[in-house]
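## tool: complex_structure
## caller: assistant
## args:
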Amino acid sequence: MTTTAVLAAAVGLIGIGLGGLLLSRHLLKLLIAVQILTKGLILAVATAGYAGGAPALGQSIALAILVADAIIIAIGLALIVQIQQRLGTLDIADLTVLRR
Amino acid sequence: MYDPTQRQAFMIAMITAACILVCAVLALGAKRLLVSVTALVGVSASLSLMLYLLGAPMLAVVELSVGIGLIAVLLVFTLNLVGEEQVERRPVLPVMVAVGLLLAVVAALVYLVQPLASSDLAGPTSPLAQTLWHDQAANTLLQIVLIFAGLISVLGLLPEIKERTEL
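## result:
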């Protein structure tokens, strides 16, 4: 019974995160969407570890995802600050420098 | 560890799942970015509770400290630097395409995780430290290298801001 709730939360988080990635235009909101997506993945991997009979393996992989996620957000935020200072906007539709 | 009855455990898990999803929707739907960051902190806190209930207290503590202690602070710091810029809410991708894609992915996910829903979560346990430092040693070392690489990258990206603030 509890598994259903945990899996519902994991699938919901992945869905909401993916929706945010597809529908948002603000760079910070995109990073927040990536965060939410990753949290869903962490929950799903940890649950899969338990369901597969290897909880420690699931937890260690979830920990690796967590570390990679923290690095992604740190580098992403540093890039966002640079983009804001160089281009003056965080709207992805206006970031067309690479197209030229 | 807290050991509730099966019915209590189900109720707590459902309430926690609802909290996680509400906070996630609020994090992406809020107009003000500070509200979004606060809602993201709510997601992290609820997720930590769910991981604890799942029987992964170590992972819960790391999620709590990284999600609230590190990521929230970094987000607020960045928000302070870049300000609350209002961006047009109309998405770049057509809404129908995005929603269709999203529904397809969620349907595929539900189909894939359905067999897990009937499984029992209580499996044989081996110490996390044993798995982390022996069975997954290469993975752990790679994480340490990644942390340093990330730190160096951030330090490399930020000096220009320091120079500008000094001027």
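## assistant note: The radius of gyration of chain A is 17 Å. Chain A touches chain B through 75 residues (CB under 8 Å). Handing back to user.
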